[in-house]
Write a structure and sequence with these properties.
Elements lengths: L9 H14 L12 H8 L3 H13 L3 E4 L3 E4 L14 H4 L7 E10 L3 H7 L7 E10 L2 E10 L2 H7 L1 H10 L6 H7 L7 E10 L2 H7 L6 E11 L2 E11 L12
Antiparallel strand pairs: 1-2, 3-4, 4-5, 5-8, 6-7, 7-8
Helix pairs in contact: 1-3, 6-7, 7-8
Length: 248
């Protein structure tokens, strides 16, 4: 597998610096982070860059913003799930699936998100797909997907491993590739839904303001007890409705 020369995007590197400070106890659970100006000065970064990294940490459940208090450090968030595994481009397409436009197909080292959800060791190499879902007359939806390391996939789901190698750089979502390769393999999954903001980088991709309200959907798909795919999908205001099935 070819490894990109730049393993970590700048915002991810900053994200990891703050996440490391959380995990090493500099900012323990329940503590409040310094104000943005103070934290930016301590880290030697600009406030816009810091704000983007803090937004990602909030999305991934490490931080919570509390009115009048600031950003506080969380324990691990609870998990919630959908009833069915279905590619997002079909799920929100309302009978007319959205198109998947590939922005980036590369390999990168784990972030805190993929370490937690894919159980990936620190120096693993994970396939990362960044896409934008678009449809006629609909708002675009950015999508980030990561696959487990090749050696894990070769062991627990070789058909998925082969399909990934054969389809890069495909105009398809990673989840659709996984489902297409899983006719003989049972999958289970859980998803989480949180309210957030679009953020500067994804706002730039869509030509929309960074403070556009959005819904963040996270997904983890497993074969048995082994996670094989983790994803984050951003649904900004104007995206078609997302159906959620629940049972009692």
């Amino acid at each position: 597998m070819a490894v990109s020369g730049q393993r970590r995007r700048p915002v991810v590197a900053l994200y990891e610096r703050i996440a490391d400070a959380v995990h090493d106890g500099t900012y323990p659970p329940g503590s409040t982070l310094p104000s943005e100006p103070k934290l930016a000065a301590e880290l030697g970064v600009s406030r816009p860059a810091l704000r983007e990294a803090l937004l990602l940490l909030q999305e991934d459940g490490l931080l919570t913003v509390r009115r009048g208090v600031g950003r506080t450090v969380n324990d691990r968030p609870p998990r919630r799930g959908f009833e069915h595994i279905q590619p997002l481009e079909e799920l929100i397409g309302a009978g007319s699936p959205l198109r998947v436009r590939a922005l980036l197909r590369t390999v990168e080292e784990p972030t805190d998100f993929t370490t937690q959800h894919l159980l990936a060791p620190a120096r693993a190499e994970l396939r990362f797909w960044e896409s934008v879902l678009t449809g006629e007359g609909t708002a675009a939806a950015p999508s980030h997907e990561w696959a487990a390391a090749d050696e894990v996939l070769d062991r627990v789901h070789p058909e998925f491993a082969r399909a990934l190698r054969a389809t890069e750089p495909a105009a398809a979502s990673m989840l659709s590739v996984l489902l297409g390769a899983s006719r003989e393999t049972a999958l289970s999954a859980h998803s989480g839904i949180t309210a957030t903001l679009l953020g500067r980088r994804r706002g730039d991709q869509l030509g929309r303001p960074a403070d556009t309200p959005a819904v963040l959907v996270t997904q983890v798909v497993r074969v048995g007890e082994t996670p094989v795919l983790a994803a984050k999908h951003m649904l900004p205001t104007g995206t078609p409705a997302l159906p959620v099935l629940q049972s009692h």
